[in-house]
Amino acid sequence: MMRPTLATALTLSLAATSAHAAILSGTAGLGDTFSQISPPAAVGNNNQQTNNTLFAFNEKQNVTLSAALDTDLTFAGPPSTLPIGSLVSSHYVFVDPSAPSNRVTGTVTFDQPILGVIFDDTKLDASASQLGAPGTTYFSPSLLGLESGDIVTIPSANTVSIDFTAGSPGDYIRVITQGVPEPASASLLALTLLTLRRR
């Protein structure tokens, strides 16, 4: 019978640290397209300029909030405040058309429950420092919120639905999902090494 090696122990430990929340899938209305992208260099200033496309990307994952976070919508309905110490992950969902007025509908589904959605421009700007994707510049902070007539709902615990009619510079929301606790990888490695040493 082969004994586990140190390399095996390290591999197991590293594999255990990969927990994260993520976008699972998206749908788009008739004539529209859903596009999950990597965090771009910039958003919010006519950077994508693609009609009839619902974009989404993952932002920071498994963040322990250092400041309370106000949301505009929850699965239960009313806005709520996520307290300091909450473990969350963040995702950006948006429409950035080149046409002056472009309607896009669709849904985005996540692998963790939605804790809240932020669509107020002031809250979007304020939350970017804690949750924005590293390396992504968020332009036009005073113009990022939704406009009159734009609709966002949470039809199920893991899915957000949008109906946006966007012009320049687009419509943007931040979806906050439950974070995924990281396994105690250091403890796992120590225990594995101790077991190997005893053998």
SSE inventory with pairings:
Elements: H1 6-15, E1 23-28, E2 33-36, E3 42-43, E4 53-58, E5 63-64, E6 69-70, E7 81-82, E8 87-95, E9 102-110, E10 114-118, H2 121-131, E11 137-138, E12 151-156, E13 159-166, E14 171-178, H3 185-198
Helix pairs in contact: 1-3
What are the defining features of this structure?
199 residues, alpha+beta, six-stranded mixed beta sheet, four-stranded antiparallel beta sheet, globular
Can you characterise this structure?
The protein is an alpha+beta fold. It is built from three helices and 14 strands. It has helices at residues 6-15, 121-131, 185-198, and strands spanning 23-28, 33-36, 42-43, 53-58, 63-64, 69-70, 81-82, 87-95, 102-110, 114-118, 137-138, 151-156, 159-166, 171-178. Strands 2, 4, 5, 8, 10 and 14 form a six-stranded mixed beta sheet that branches. The chain has a four-stranded antiparallel beta sheet with strand order 1-9-13-12, with no helix packed on it. A two-stranded parallel ribbon has the order 3-11. Strand 12 and strand 13 (159-166) form a beta hairpin. The longest helix has 14 residues, at 185-198. The relative contact order is 0.25. Mean pLDDT is 87; it is low at 1-17.
